[in-house]
């Protein structure tokens, strides 16, 4: 009785059955790395059936040559009574029909083969599920830490920008107060000494001088802030052209702030005060992802194109430009059409129109069916190009260019847009094919960008 109790305790404390065949171990072996035990026949058949086998319990890789006999298990199994060692787990079999002793004799082997096949199919064990869930929890914890770190970094950046904004506004206010105080002191001195009429122009000259000095200081601050915005935008587009999703522009115009402005909105310049006289023919055009060089990144709902230091992933297209050019998706074959493009963020560009079948290696303005105006910052020169013929335009760099395509007149005109439209050049067209807005950013070694802008309507 005591021996039976000790045997039951032994069976409860030690797992003596193979997890693959569910029978008592037969010639038990141990995997060298993880230490899990199986019947030698079970694990040998399992390992030889697949390249690079992994442990059925923990998925650790092993080699069949690394199997080691499990002598402790063999010793424990030798203590079991023979009748217990011959038991087979599982539901009882139906009795064999009379005279079918051969089938009855084969049933244990068939059952063993069936269990073996099942064990091969059910390789995901509770231990493996536990490990996967543990890995999932670690992933969630790591992701939470990264999100917290990113949030902290952005908070620091916002605090820095807000602090610089406060200091800049304070500086401007102090300069304005100092200029105002100086003018008031001058007026007071001139009033006290009762300057005669001949000396009155001095008062005006001094006021103009003070105003010019203040304007110069404020322009320095304004230009520094605008330069910082452009550099931040270029940094994001250059370092992370695909990681940052495009920011949707707001539905209504809002006063820009540090918290709400995006790189696209920060780069825009104020719209002209006077409505465009061509706004009645304005078209909403956008860049075509199929007709853009891979080193040009499209953002702001395909309204902005910028030079990127890394190739941008686009869908494969046989008509993609091999040079740093881009076309719009829209084409025009009849009527009158108008669009504008902001050029202030690039020091080398061309704006024009081109036949839709322009070759992917053809340069804008250098073919029979393309027309453009271009700015070369290195030469500080504005030119018009068609059929590889250059016409030098003695104009300053336009910060915004308007394009008026009048197909009934067979002309295309280019304007410099400020608070009014100033004609730069007009081409006579010599084609009846549909024309697309087309653009060229000259250097991939320097940052540059063009932004499509809808003109103000009347």
Can you put this structure into words, describing what you see?
This protein has 458 residues and is of the alpha+beta class. The protein folds into three domains: 100 residues, Herpes Virus-1, CATH 3.30.40.10; 85 residues; 181 residues, Jelly Rolls (Sandwich). Helices cover 36% and strands 20% of the residues. It is built from eight helices and 17 strands. The strands form three sheets. A seven-stranded antiparallel β-sheet has the order 4-7-16-9-10-11-12, with no helix packed on it. β1 and β2 form a beta hairpin. α6 runs antiparallel to α7. The longest helix is centred in the middle third of the chain and has 67 residues.
Name the descriptors:
single chain; 458 residues; alpha+beta; Herpes Virus-1; Jelly Rolls; 3 domains; seven-stranded antiparallel β-sheet; 8 helices; 17 strands; 20% strand
């Amino acid at each position: 009785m005591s021996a039976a109790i000790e045997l039951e305790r032994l069976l409860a404390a030690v797992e003596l059955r193979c997890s693959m065949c569910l029978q008592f171990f037969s010639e038990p072996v141990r995997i060298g790395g993880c230490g899990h035990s199986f019947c030698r026949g079970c694990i040998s058949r399992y390992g030889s059936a697949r390249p690079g086998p992994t442990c059925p319990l923990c998925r650790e890789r092993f080699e069949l040559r690394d199997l080691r006999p499990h002598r402790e298990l063999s010793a424990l199994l030798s203590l079991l009574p023979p009748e217990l060692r011959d038991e087979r787990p599982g539901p009882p079999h139906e009795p064999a029909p009379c005279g079918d002793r051969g089938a009855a004799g084969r049933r244990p082997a068939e059952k063993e083969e069936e269990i073996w096949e099942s064990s091969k199919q059910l390789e995901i064990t509770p231990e493996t599920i536990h490990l996967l869930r543990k890995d999932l929890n670690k992933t969630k914890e790591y992701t939470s830490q990264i999100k917290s770190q990113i949030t902290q970094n952005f908070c620091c950046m916002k605090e820095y920008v807000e602090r610089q904004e406060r200091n800049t506004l304070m500086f401007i206010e102090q300069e304005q107060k100092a200029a105002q105080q100086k003018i008031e002191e001058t007026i007071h001195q001139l009033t006290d000494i009762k300057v005669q009429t001949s000396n009155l122009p001095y008062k005006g000259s001094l006021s103009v001088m003070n105003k010019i000095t203040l304007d110069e200081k404020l322009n320095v601050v304004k230009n520094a802030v605008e330069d910082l915005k452009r550099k931040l935008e270029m940094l994001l587009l250059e370092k992370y052209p695909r990681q940052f999703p495009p920011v949707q522009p707001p539905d209504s115009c809002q006063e820009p702030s540090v918290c709400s402005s995006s790189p696209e909105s920060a780069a825009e310049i104020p719209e002209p005060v006077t409505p465009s006289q061509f706004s009645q023919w304005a078209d909403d055009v956008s860049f075509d992802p199929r007709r853009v060089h891979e080193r040009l990144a499209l953002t702001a709902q395909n309204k902005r194109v910028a030079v990127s230091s890394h190739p941008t992933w686009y869908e494969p297209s046989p008509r993609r430009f091999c040079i740093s050019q881009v076309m719009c998706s829209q084409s025009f074959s009849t009527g009158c059409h108008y669009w504008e493009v902001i050029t202030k963020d690039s020091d080398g560009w061309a704006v024009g129109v081109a036949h839709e079948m322009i070759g992917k290696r053809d340069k804008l303005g250098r073919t029979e069916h393309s027309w453009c105006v271009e700015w070369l910052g290195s030469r500080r020169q504005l030119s018009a190009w068609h059929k590889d013929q250059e016409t030098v335009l003695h104009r300053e760099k336009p910060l915004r260019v308007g394009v008026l395509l009048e197909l009934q007149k067979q002309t295309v005109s280019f304007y410099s847009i400020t608070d009014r439209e100033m004609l730069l050049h007009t081409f006579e067209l010599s084609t009846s094919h549909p024309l697309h807005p087309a653009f060229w950013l000259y250097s991939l070694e320097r940052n540059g960008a063009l932004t499509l802008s809808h003109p103000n309507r009347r």
